[in-house]
## 1
Amino acid sequence: MRDLSGKTAVITGGASGIGKAMAQAFGAEGMKLVIADVERAALDAAVAELQQGYEAIGVLCDVARHEQVEALAAAALDAFGAVHVVVNNAGVSITGPIAQLTLDDWRWVFDVNVWGVVNGIRVFTPLLTAQGEGHIVNTASEAGFLGIGYHAPYCASKWAVISMSLSLYSELEAACSGVGSSVVCPGFVDTKIHRAWRNRPEGDQPWSRRELDPDALARTDEFQGRGVPPEHVARLTVEAVRENRFWVFNTPHWRDLIRSARDQQISGENPPVNTWGPDLRPQAKSP
């Protein structure tokens, strides 16, 4: 899709982080914007900011609920008449030992990261293929190529997004649909995904309330802040849509990362010990 001006982009998880940066990047190309998010205050603030320079609306939407994604599509069509770029970006993360994570931890991450993408693809793909034009972007992660200790739900969900995106690409190309697709696999990005627990469903039973500890949260804020700006990922994504390019990476080492993982699998080597955040290790109990 070389010509983006005047067309419409729908972006989930669009009130902050990579999603908001993508909204700004697509808006700078002259696109009309439909921003979806589950957090009302953040959504209203983001849309008010975007409306200073772009034509934008906001839709409160829990991507884990198919009927709400259907309502998102209806709102986009009602506002702008068509949809051309869909960015299934909403994502959350939980950290902790895999044996201690609760079923609610797993359900929450997979409901947003996996089912959110499934719902986005299922709702919007027929609209784009019917008009014979469009592009679907799914946000995964470099972590989807790895198995990182204390991040099992996130890594597993992002590999599911990569695999799903590969299947989608094959289907769209085989059908000569005129619809492109991309999967965004960012490395470490300066976002607030580590604060995503604020939007967990009521009644969830997380394995730990560690994230509510002010000292631990401050350390995580500082650590996460070392990531690349989300605007960098957004610029690369716009380029990929323009060039109809499937893979979107933002780090110089991504080839080495994937090659190393594949070489270990082919050779039958045991995987390396790979963990992030040693402060997440269970503490030994005093006698």
## 2
Amino acid sequence: MPESIDPTGYGIEEGKAACLAGAYERFFSLLVNKRISLLELGVWEGASLRFWRDYFENATIVGLDRNPPFQINDPQGMIHVYQGYQQDTNLLDRIVYEQAPDGFDVIIDDCAHIGMFARISFWHLFQNHLKPGGLYCIEDWGTGYFPWRKCPDAGYYKAKSQLISNKDRLFIRLVMWLSDAFPSLPSLVAITFRLFNRSKIRSHERGMVGFIKELVDAYALGTIAIPRSGSGRYLLYGISQLHITQGVIYIFKSAEPPPNSPADSISA
């Protein structure tokens, strides 16, 4: 990041300023001199928009916030602010049509931090309005572990939580013992694990944390789907890279779409 641009000088809170000077710089530095379009969901009073305008000197900077549009000192006319909600897909479509008809290069979600809303805006924008090879960033996803006023769908993290219950664990041990004692039987271990995992990919299933883990599933599955693994919508567009930090998750869209539609290879 250019030494002359200090995020703290824009009135950006300390945690976000650290992200801007850290991992963001790692991913954004190659875009500095290019003509790009950037959309930020959740901009409060516009401090980050002013920072992006000065950092990306040839960019179109667009912000969305539920509060009324505010006045911002922008004589170059690079910044455009809209009022509304991130889950309003019709509004998102209008923003793209008016400001980035070819799609956005970078999209940043620093909005409600509510999993249901973040999920709606992500899949709509990622699938339809993020350019191939583009970058989608979701900030403060870790708030999903700690319920507070602005994150009503969060849940406390329990350090002693188990992926498999004690009852299930004992059953699996019994099956493994039977498999060793009676080798002529079919592979009971493999059958048991298939039964335990046949209905879904087990993970934290609520709020921001559940949504982020859905993205991990999407990245891991790529263009391969398994029966009853979910809606499969995300399989229509590839995630080429996924970088998770404590503050931000960075999702890169594949430069090339999958060669075949997953629908062609999924058996009911």
## 3
Amino acid sequence: MKLAALCRLCAFILVTFVTVTSSVCSGKPPLVKCGIDNLIDTQFALLRGKRVVLVTHAAARAQTGRSTFDEFRRRTDVSLLRILTPEHGFYGTVAAGGSVANEHIDGVDAISLYGAQRKPSAAIISDADIVVIDLQDIGTRSYTFMSTMIECLESCAELNIRVMILDRPNPLGGNVVDGNVPEDSLRTFVARIPVAYVHGMTMGELATMSNGEGWLGKDEKGLPRRCSLTVVRCKRWTRDMRFEETGLSWYPTSPNIPTIHAARGYPVTGLLGELGGVYIGIGAQSPFTVVGAPSRVLDTALIQRLKLHGVTALQAQFVPSNGRFQGTLCTGYYLAFDGDVKWRPYTAALALIAALTPDVKMNDSASGITGAQKSMFKKVSGSSSLLTALLNGNMVNAEAEAARGLEAFKLKRRQYLLYP
């Protein structure tokens, strides 16, 4: 029985891999051009003769297939001083939360912004004419690339250094907005600015909004700081596009986001994973797209609720190859995501947590969910009361808390949207 379950999982993974890589193998040029492609098309006209500090990683690629870092290194008319790297490191191989070390990559200093420092110091950017940022984000607030960008903007505002964002499509699309705005007391590196959990904005739009709303700290007079900001926009991207429609290839941004499907699953199952007691595929080939536990009773009502929120749950059995349930037969669901305007990943996450509360409470600690797990859930969700409501089965309060500040954010974001 275990062997059969493993075979079904392997087949599911194979279908996922073929789907993700089909646009790569077709040989067709991408429909959408990212900021780096438009910079290349203009022969780096905006940066000629400039001294540049580049904030980037290997997942940020041009249509050439080369990384943005490699494209900069090929230029003789731009002086690349150094690169700065986010969580997971330049190659995206460091585990979540793991400290990223400084290194040298092809003769260029790569300074970590997820180690001894998270905000660039004057020592590493003050000799630059401009700081250029090209990071492939995944569209969810708790994924820290957005926070790294904000820290860079804040430093540049303080030091009067220009900033350029090489923009990329939001892989979750530009119309899906779901989840509460974080409480001020819970504004941490996994909730750095007051935006919805799934915000539906590109990095360029988030930077523009942060600059316009005065979210980059205050000066000596207590006035909001702003930086000199340029966004090199994408071409031909529209907000209603699924990532597969862009023609772009997905490159892993971190060990557990190897595919676009994992990026979509992250806001659906990531919060559940913070609580333990349930397997969500972390460390395997299907992270964030599978949910289950031993002796789990399948819930047909949950399947229907998830479907209403744009998530298809397929009943399944599988044997995890790692983690707490390694080698143990689990019952649960494979998850697929519509990714269109009706998709509500954060709302779907609440339904999952509420339905799987018995499994969550029966984790390894004798007292159930640990204090550390509760604290991290609050930081990631940006809410001090959401978890209590969910564990008490009070879905009315949970849904109200999950929508706190959402409508006001939707209205505010409109003026900062750069794409139709």
